Amino acid sequence: MKFYALITLVLSFNVFSHSANDGDLEGTWILAESKWNNQALELCQPKMTKIYTEEVVMYTWYESSEDNFCNKLSVGQGTYELKDGIVTETIINHSNSTMIGQSFSYKPNFMFDKKSFIQEVTFGDDVLFERWGSKSCDQQKCARIN
After folding, report:
1. What is the DSSP letter of 135?
2. In Å, what is the CA distance from 74 to each residue of 53, 57, 63, 77, 97?
3. I need a surface site. Which of 37, 79, 123, 125 has the fewest CB within 10 A?
């Protein structure tokens, strides 16, 4: 029975999810889930936020210390390009100056209502998984990726 449930979940994810098109990212997104190498990360308060405009992305993130993952709320800003379903973000301003100029790419996978998406970003051998939900989901019912 578990096998059939797993197959149904995989099929529904593939049937109801979509890659990104122009304009899909524009708006405000709240981090709903985060994993580093399949280990769940603490979601700090206030939750991390990304704001996409036509070509600019602004975001909050947390600097961690050895004893506190949610040590210091920080900000960053950059540009992004969406080409063939792949997003490439380039950091222009960042609380950590060593990050300025770095780029990373990911393929966002949207749910059918385009109100939530997942992304996986590879950093060498490490993988960051994130699930983002539209800020508008605070007021309306949105599909969820679990």
Report:
1. G
2. 20, 14, 7, 11, 12
3. 125
DSSP string, 24-58: SS-EEEEEEEEEETTEEPP--SSPPEEEE-SSEEE
Domain with residues 2-138, CATH architecture: Beta Barrel (2.40)
pTM score, whole prediction: 0.78
Token look-up 């960053």 returns 76
Separation CA 143–CA 126 (nearest Å): 28
Report the first-to-last Cα separation within the chain, whole angstroms.
Answer: 19
Higher pLDDT, 136 or 5: 136
Q: Could you tell me which residues come within 8 angstroms of residue 126 by beta carbon, excluding any fewer than 6 positions away?
A: 36, 37
Nearest to 128 by CA among 51, 2, 31: 31
Q: What type of residue is 65? A: S
Average pLDDT for the chain: 82
